[in-house]
Specification:
Number of helices of chain A: 16
Strand order of the largest sheet of chain A: 3-2-1-4-5-6-7
Largest sheet of chain B: 5 strands, parallel
Number of strands of chain A: 13
Radius of gyration of chain B: 30 Å
CATH class of the largest domain in chain A: Alpha Beta
Number of strands of chain B: 12
Largest sheet of chain A: 7 strands, parallel
CATH superfamily of the largest domain in chain A: Glycogen Phosphorylase B
Structural class of chain A: alpha/beta
Largest interface: A-B, 21 and 18 residues
Radius of gyration of chain A: 23 Å
Strand content of chain A: 5-15%
Oligomer: heterodimer
Number of domains of chain A: 2
Distance between the termini of chain B: 68 Å
CATH architecture of the largest domain in chain A: 3-Layer(aba) Sandwich
Order of helices and strands of chain A: HEHEEHHEHEHHEHEEHEHEHEHEHEHHH
């Protein structure tokens, strides 16, 4: 609603809304200079305060969710919103943890000590805990862990004042519900992925019911794409009117692609957790097909995950092991470098609620081939698409990008421009719109 | 006096299917027959059938006072002949009234004018023949694909002896001048009819647009706009796609009622009448010369070539296609030439336009591809397949060469007086040959047959095989097998 020009009708509607307290007057000023748009500014002491629950937050990040949360929080803070962010502590001694500094007076970060990482399945959790020196404070069972975390998180914020609760993904939904009980404030749950995306049809009933409970208790559900929204409606029976779509974005910056002459062969990249959800096996089958037509190509599987041993075996079985490189988990510098080296980025996900890596690749000047089962493809036009199971389509498109310079350069140029226009700022604005509709701004 | 000149473009391309790299060499069915049939049937039902019968009714009821003109592409006519011959008949019935003029264009709705004058001329000729064979009509007026025009085109078309050319009355070529007069080309002197794009697009694009100030457009209102031109114009050229009626603008929005009411409404004014392009050109004198050095078209806001040749993929695809021109024509392979020409239809390049993400829906219309990139990928794979077919044809030609008579002074004179003129004669000659003659030519010192096959016939493979053969029978069977092999290929 804030994108409209300042027509007289709009101003009247605005005043009416203010009177009805839908837009509390004290929180807004009209800025007529800003290209006719209404720019929000906040009056000194009465700023919106969000209580946000998330699993990861820098400096302890294993998956992408930590980065998503920190970008969102930063951009909300830029819009002069106050945020209390409650996160799990993560693994301080883990080599995969990375430090992203967060110095911002609008943000108060609370960490609940817990070794839980956001992409863990209950089985994976048991493995991690029993195989390392870290012992969870509250027990060795993930669900127990979540319950205890929920309790601890709720205690942590019992004394805090806030206007709205915003919880990211299922492990925080319980904490969100608790906080809502305590304060009576509206709850927004933000669904970055559902159990169906992560494990296909063999859903863990307990995870499923936590997700469902959270979505039901929420006053508003944020889905990262229409693709995810549909899943929420279908699998969780949530009223579509309650679900808003807020696409992810990227502030990722990368140096221009490296001089390709230093490479002896072209490079096709898979980047993501090596799990069923991400479709690494389809990537290998496509690699096999590509190699039948074009010998001088290397395929990189960047990332780690439970399917890694299986995938390595598969490469051997397909007799392409000499053409496939496995990098394991990459830190940020390595990540930037691998993007710069790549000629083609493939996201062959079986189910991808969004797919931020696609935007990162585009911003690195790498043309992308994107699974049709993804949220990001609703957002970007300058990409190639394929069904994850359609090996012919996938390999045809890889070959086309390797063979036709003009296709490569057109997608590179248009992709770079398109991805640059997808910013976290507009995602933060969308979140504010959601809060707005709940009448808290 | 104001004359109204109506011209309708009738065209449907052969749309390309998703053709993957794995299809190359496996099949050459580049065109999506089902999709093409489906689109054609839809257009027939929504536009061609109802509009044809309405036009016929108007012509018959108005005593020869209502006239229209058409330009049909060869590719739409071929498809109609194959899938809907009754539509051809109904167009013929319109032409037979004598109130319909047909225009000439490139048979394949191609951009050949930009890329090859030789091909351009050939396609005009093919189109001319089609108009004659199907409708018994000899067009005297030319219109180029998408109304693409410049001085160079006028020079060329003028040399071919046409009375005039249709072009877009774009602001940047007209300047302050009105499109409602006949002009002539500054470079060639050929007469020009310029599209009145405002009034044409009022019908073609804005008719159903509720936000448009002219909405709803009635025949009465439109006739008043035309009447206003009386006194400061001779001819109003309303040029548009035929699909405007019923397909771009839907029946339930009233487009047919509009079309039905318009002619009588226009003729209410005693000074108005309808003319065909040919009549307009002969009736009205050119008022001025037009100098158009740069290409102009009727597409998009830019009225230039950016819809087809705006990005590098489009340029590359066209370039690659025309790189094959000489070889394809020389191959003499009709199917190959035909496929190559169908691939020249401008639509294929239109589908590769990356502008349409911003420029609106027109580019998506009946587009078989979801993205311009997919259109490019399929097209380039097809070009690869064309290349492969071309190589095969060339190889076959070479093979067939081997069966032909060798030059007279290079025939094989056998020791027994026999003459062998080609490879086909060699096997029976060997069979019949006396053992002494054979061993005269084939012995420990030499093998005349192998040498002749290598140096004169030019079949290295066979020569190599014959080299070691000392036995007449074996030699004969090797040669006859080779001949069979060449024939079967």
């Amino acid at each position: 609603m804030f994108k409209h020009v300042l027509s007289p009708a709009f101003i009247i509607a605005y005043i009416l809304l203010c009177k009805k307290n839908i837009i509390p007057e004290k929180h807004y000023l009209l800025d007529i200079s800003g290209f006719g748009k209404v720019v929000k500014t906040w009056n000194g002491g009465n700023r919106l305060k969000i209580l946000m629950f998330g699993w990861e937050f820098p400096p302890y990040c294993i998956g992408g969710l930590g980065r998503v949360c920190s970008n969102l929080v930063k951009n909300l803070s830029n819009r002069n919103v106050k945020i209390i962010f409650v996160t799990a502590k993560g693994k301080p001694d883990s080599s995969s943890a990375k430090v992203i500094s967060m110095e911002d007076e609008n943000i108060k970060l609370c960490r609940v000590d817990s070794p839980v990482s956001c992409y863990m399945t209950p089985e994976g959790y048991i493995k991690v805990v029993s195989g390392s020196n870290i012992h969870g404070l509250y027990g060795h069972n993930l669900f127990e862990e979540v319950e205890n975390y929920t309790k601890k998180a709720a205690e942590l914020v019992a004394e805090e004042y806030y206007d709205i609760i915003h919880a990211h993904d299922w492990m925080t939904f319980g904490a969100g519900i608790e906080a809502k009980k305590q304060s009576g404030k509206p709850l927004v749950v933000h669904v970055h992925s559902t159990e169906f995306d992560r494990v296909g049809d063999n859903v863990n009933q307990r995870v499923y019911s936590i997700e469902k409970k959270g979505m039901q208790a929420a006053d508003s559900v944020i889905a990262v794409s229409n693709y995810t929204k549909e899943k929420i409606v279908q699998n969780y029976g949530i009223n579509p009117d309650k679900i808003a779509v807020v696409y992810n974005a990227t502030d990722f910056k990368n140096a221009p692609a490296e001089n390709h002459e230093i490479k002896s062969s072209k490079l096709v990249l898979f980047l993501g957790r090596v799990t069923f959800q991400k479709g690494p096996e389809y990537f290998l089958h496509a690699a096999k097909k590509v190699l039948e037509h074009e010998k001088n190509v290397k395929f990189v599987v960047a990332g780690s995950g439970d399917m890694e041993p299986y995938i390595i075996d598969k490469a051997v079985e397909l007799k392409i092991a000499d053409k496939v490189l496995f990098t394991g988990f990459l830190d940020e510098n390595e990540l930037n470098r691998i993007y710069r080296l790549a000629d083609v980025y493939v996201l062959p996900s079986v189910s991808e609620p969004f797919g931020i890596t696609v935007l990162e690749a585009m911003k690195s000047g790498v043309p992308v081939i994107v699974s049709k089962n993804s949220g990001v493809r609703e957002l970007v036009k300058h990409c190639l698409t394929t069904d994850f199971w359609d090996i012919n389509e996938m390999s045809d498109k890889i070959l086309a990008l390797l063979n036709h310079d003009v296709l490569h350069s057109t997608l590179k140029m248009n992709g770079l421009r398109e991805a640059s226009s997808i910013t976290w700022g507009s995602a933060a604005d969308k979140c504010l719109e959601v809060y707005n509709k709940l009448g808290v701004c | 006096m104001v004359s109204v000149c109506l011209y309708f473009q009738v065209h449907q391309p052969y749309r390309i299917r998703r053709y993957q790299i794995f299809d190359i060499g496996r099949h050459h069915n580049y065109f999506d027959e089902n999709k093409n049939k489906e689109v054609l049937n839809k257009v027939i039902e929504k536009c061609y059938m109802p509009t044809n019968s309405l036009l016929l009714e108007l012509i018959n009821s108005m005593d020869g006072k209502f006239k229209v003109s058409f330009s049909f592409t060869g590719v739409v006519l071929e498809q109609l002949e194959a899938y809907a011959p009754h539509i051809i008949e109904s167009f013929k019935a319109l032409v037979d009234t004598g109130c319909v003029e047909l225009l000439n264009e490139t048979y394949y709705h191609s951009l050949s004018f930009i890329h090859s004058m030789k091909e351009f001329e050939k396609q005009i000729d093919l189109h001319k023949k089609k108009m004659n064979s199907l409708f018994g009509f000899r067009p005297k007026v030319f219109r180029n694909t998408e109304l693409i025009y410049n001085n160079e085109l006028s020079n060329f078309i003028s040399r071919l002896g046409y009375d005039g050319i249709l072009a877009e009355g774009a602001d940047h070529i007209m300047g302050w001048r009105s499109p409602n007069f006949v002009y002539k080309s500054k470079s060639s002197g050929i007469k020009l009819l310029l599209k009145n794009y405002r009034l044409s697009d009022d019908i073609a694009f804005r008719f159903g647009e509720k936000n448009w100030e002219g909405y709803p457009l009635t025949a009465d209102k439109f006739a008043q706009w035309i009447n206003k031109i009386n006194g400061n114009g001779n001819v109003v050229n309303l040029f548009m796609d035929y699909e405007t009626f019923g397909e771009h603008q839907w029946a339930d929005k009233g487009i047919f009622n509009f079309l039905k009411a318009l002619p009588p409404e226009l003729l209410k004014h005693p000074d108005n009448d309808f003319v065909t392009p040919g009549e307009a050109l002969s009736r009205y004198k050119p008022v001025a010369e037009l100098d158009v050095p740069n290409l102009v078209s009727w597409a998009d806001i830019e009225r230039d070539l950016s819809a087809w040749l705006g990005n590098n993929m489009q340029k590359e695809a066209v370039r690659q296609l025309h790189l094959l021109e000489d070889k394809i024509i020389k191959s003499g392979d009709d199917k190959l030439i035909k496929d190559w020409r169908i691939l020249q239809s401008s639509d294929h390049f239109y589908y590769m336009c990356t502008k349409w993400f911003a420029d609106g829906d027109v580019h998506k219309y009946f587009n078989p591809f979801n993205s311009p990139y997919d259109a490019f990928i399929s097209f380039m794979n097809i070009i690869n397949d064309l290349n492969m077919r071309l190589k095969k044809v060339e190889e076959m030609k070479k093979m067939n060469e081997k069966l032909k008579d060798v030059p007279e002074d290079k025939v094989f004179w056998a020791n027994d007086g026999g003459v062998i003129k080609n490879l086909r004669e060699l096997a029976p000659a060997l069979k019949k040959m006396h053992a002494d003659t054979f061993s005269h030519h084939v012995n420990s010192e030499k093998n005349d047959f192998s040498n002749w096959v290598r140096d004169v016939v030019g079949d290295q493979e066979l020569a190599e095989e014959l080299k070691g053969i000392k036995n007449k029978k074996n030699a004969a069977s090797i040669v006859s097998n080779r001949v069979k092999e060449i024939k079967s290929s």
